[in-house]
Design goal:
Blueprint (H helix, E strand, L loop, with lengths): L1 H16 L5 E9 L5 E9 L5 E5 L7 E5 L2 E9 L4 E8 L7 E2 L2 E2 L12 E2 L4 E10 L5 E5 L9 E2 L2 E2 L3 E11 L3 E11 L2
Parallel strand pairs: 8-15
Antiparallel strand pairs: 1-2, 2-4, 3-5, 5-6, 7-9, 10-11, 10-14, 12-13, 14-15
């Protein structure tokens, strides 16, 4: 019985060593808006015994789903010392902020405040300014959690159209500006 087990081990070892050669690597990748990029490598060839996949950012494995925008070198190696390096470029998609076109600060508990949403993917500076039709600033906030309640210096502003500028930092695309109008209806 011991001889049979030993023979099987020798055969398996010989078989693995005979699998010397190149790797075939198929790559799928992508990125959703507001999410990090992902890439999956399907590897064939090399040693059947084991393949290791090492990414230039220190990650290990053939599937990664937390990739920032950029160029990655990926080394695929087998247990026999064969290796192949591939480069993968991940391009993240911009994550736009959203603002509503109007709000109704009338105290009924529905749409009583206005501000930007979808800001969790942005980091760093955030400034929102609102101006009346004469260019006077009626609201400013440096925090996305401070919405406008339709007041300026404690008093309600008249119904009408106001102009906003939002400056923020997108984690993948740097400094951004958004601008437009918002209408107050009571």
């Amino acid at each position: 019985m011991k001889k049979i087990i030993f023979a099987l081990c020798l055969f398996a070892s010989f078989f693995a060593k005979s699998q010397v050669g190149t790797f075939t690597i198929s790559i799928t990748k992508g990125a959703s808006a507001c999410e990090k990029g992902w890439a999956k490598l399907i590897i064939s060839g090399g040693s059947v015994v084991s393949n290791t996949v090492n990414w230039s950012n220190g990650l290990v494995g053939n599937y990664q789903n937390t990739l920032d925008s950029g160029l990655y070198s990926v080394t695929v190696a087998d247990s026999l010392g064969n290796d192949t390096v591939v480069q993968i470029y991940i391009e993240a998609k911009e994550c736009p902020i959203h603002v509503s076109a109007s709000f109704t600060p009338n105290g009924d508990g529905t749409h009583d405040t206005w501000g930007a949403s979808n800001t969790k993917y942005h980091e760093g500076e955030y400034i929102i300014q609102v101006f009346n039709r004469w260019g006077q600033k009626v609201f400013e906030a440096k925090n996305e959690f401070e919405p406008w309640d339709g007041r300026s210096f404690g008093s309600p502003v008249p119904d009408g159209t106001y102009y906003y500028i939002i400056e923020y930092t997108d984690s993948n695309f740097g400094e951004k500006k958004a601008h437009g109008t918002v209408t107050i209806l009571r």
